[in-house]
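The instructor's notes for this session suggest beginning with a concrete chain rather than abstract definitions. Hand out the sequence below and ask the class to guess, before any prediction is shown, which regions might be ordered.
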Amino acid sequence: MAAIKAVEFTLQGDPTRAKATVEEALVARKFTVAWSDEWSGVAERGSKTKNLLLGAAAQYFKVGVRVMSADTGHAIVRLDRESTGWMGGAIGAARTTKNLEGLRDDLGRTFDAAGVLVGVNQL
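After discussion, reveal the predicted structure:
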């Protein structure tokens, strides 16, 4: 099975609310979110330097975040895998895949519990 490269969440409501919701959810999971413009940015957790020096013992995880408006009146939040984990070797790469899968599942449950999840698409 190939590693997932991106996850899209279709949410009820407008993109402004979806942006705030995904940022809150990521920060609660110890990510630092930096917006490069109004609708896109990156979320990082861990230290890239420590990961380089210590390998799999010090994990670093980075995802791109985009918020878009769908034709259906829904918002789409897309998380793109931006770190491969290979600085931590094969173990680090496997952990990065598991981290994205875990983040997909965790955010899906969070959005579902909030009553805003319409669907999840794995790319």
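Then share the key points. The chain has one domain: 12-118. Residues 89-113 form the longest helix (25 residues).
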